[in-house]
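User: Could you walk me through two proteins back to back? I'd like the raw sequence and the structure tokens for each, with a short line separating them so I can tell where one ends and the next begins.

Assistant: Of course. Protein one, sequence then structure:
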Amino acid sequence: MTYDLPLTTYDSLITKQSKIAIIGLGYVGLPIALSFARHLSVIGFDINEQRIALMQQGIDPSNELTAAEFNDRDILFTSSIEDLKQASFYIVAVPTAVDAHNIPNLTYLKRASETIGKVITKGDYVVFESTVYPGCTEEDCLPIIEKISGLKVGADFKLGYSPERINPGDKIHTIENIIKVVASSDKESLEAIAAVYSIVVKVGIHKASSIKVAEAAKIIENTQRDLNIALMNELSIIFDKMGINTFEVLEAAATKWNFLKFTPGLVGGHCIGVDPYYLTYKAAKLGYSSKIIAAGRYINDGMGSYVAKKVIQHIIKYSSDVKAAKVLVMGATFKENVTDIRNSKVADVVKALKDYHLNVEVTDAFASSDALKAEYGFPLTSKIASDYDAVIVIVPHSLYKDFDNSYFTSITKKDALIADIKGIYRGKISSRKYWSL
């Protein structure tokens, strides 16, 4: 898309007379920063100095990007607020999470707003990408910026929102080829923000009518997926009681042209397992108690315990000494082929198994043992044994798909259970008990 408007901010960025800053260099912020750095002068800011040190060496701490993707980029990686003052266009991509009670935790977002308030000057642009409930950008973040900076939105600086659509591990749906939703506080700044994002996004820009609309659009993307997966999870529980394999049912149903083929599984990560709580929280603040969304969250949050229960029932039936039973859990990241362990529901399975005093070992080709120990209290096992009473394949990493009946036979006892959560070994396990969602 070509923009012919006299956009001063756009012109100054494209000619490198001014800089663009990305605040928060995690799974979302770093890819954005490096994409812009192909064309603009970028300041990549993060408060974690260890991460900054790695990125300065061309290393992605999240192991998502290769060293080559750092090459020929005009970018300064820094943890210094003073460096941020060189920018005129700020993009905030800090994480948003929930606490132990599933209440939105805006700590990082508010701190980022405080930082922006200390560095922006008249004429600057601030765009938030962090996933939030509708109204958060203008009601929670904006007042902080205005109070600290002494500036007023509209008259002194421009405020926008553009929801992130980064999918960890996905090398196809990247920033450049995903339509970008943008929104702003006024029409003039909306055009400017759209123009800046069009520098890196080549497939199109969608201009939302308001910041709240853009925030809501993002939150329902993941809420919709959460509900669809919750339906599949509930169906898998029902079909299990009927002695029917859920994946066989889905294959049959998917022959209809308009059937949406979602699959059951554990729902974790930084988006699908978190974002719906932002919406239900905001709804509750407005006096509405969510029914369907909350029900979906209830089902999905309970799947870890359900999987553990099925395994425990098998062990009780076939093991003479339950407390001596050994279980191997394969996969500890929140999804396949990534290193990300945030909100991994594998931890729920491990906890439920250990509550029954089972001996649980965990293996994963991507996760960090130290990170798992720090976050969830268990490390990775250093060696796979040969006498497991059950093996639970939770995360279908690509390298696991080559394992066959002989492999599982070699690491398990005669009456062991292979619990194949995503059904990748369906029809391949013959010498051991087999179960899947």
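----
Protein two, same layout:
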Amino acid sequence: MEIIEEKNNIRLRALDSFVPKHIFECGQSFRWNFDGMGYIGVVGDKVMRVVEDGKDIIFEGCNVDDFYDTWIDYFDLDRDYGSIRSKLIEFDSIMKKATVFGYGIRLLNQDPWETLISFILSANNNINRIKKTIENICMIYGDKILWRGQEYYTFPSPTILANSDIDTLRRCGCGYRDRYILETAKKVVENEAKLYSLRMLSYDEAIDFLLKFSGVGPKVADCVALFSLGKYEAFPVDVWIKRIVEALYFEREEICKEDIKRFASNKFGDYAGFAQQYLFYYARENHIGNG
């Protein structure tokens, strides 16, 4: 990877396994949106547009300090995804097709608090509604950021949401999840340091802690573990992944979610989380299992 600093931009050359559409359309994050030129996202108090320029990737609105302080870790740029794909290809022909199709996927290292609330909102919901609800929450409770003449908003802190109210959260579009958001925020405030220390615990210990929050079941806990805590053995199973695995591996035979998760763990081991993202993107884009 060659890093070139341009005026208010960073250009990345010879960057393997990085396709913005693959990364931002595989269900792992809800604050990146395509604006016709690239994907604009808000991470912490930073706004950036990610643009493909031929074989180069441009980080617009990014300087060298931000690139090293924030974006290398966020985009997992120090990891060799080519070797991960090579390992997954060894499992079977299905994974070969999925990894070739979604060759540009990278797993983002997101903030655990924002990821926790985002995936509580994802339960029985669709991506467009999830995104809209999160943006409403950020507009009401977050801090404003002016970026290239447009207004963006940070994700609110646990303390701010803990001091919110059910009616306002309901107006944001949370629906029945408003109570979960409020209760979870209050619980995080009591022990915020523990949430951020979960990366240092085992997968099972992290899941046990996450399941104590309101609105968090096995799928949400696995999403938080995979997308913000570096627990790559996690294999989140929702209705779509269930149908996808049934269609690709079980000839559409009905399999319970627990058995799907057990199958993935036994088959993919420590690569289960990577496999989940490749399978989801491949199946959704090719309308397999109605994913």
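The CA atoms of residues 166 and 238 lie 27 Å apart.

Let me know if you want the two compared in more detail.
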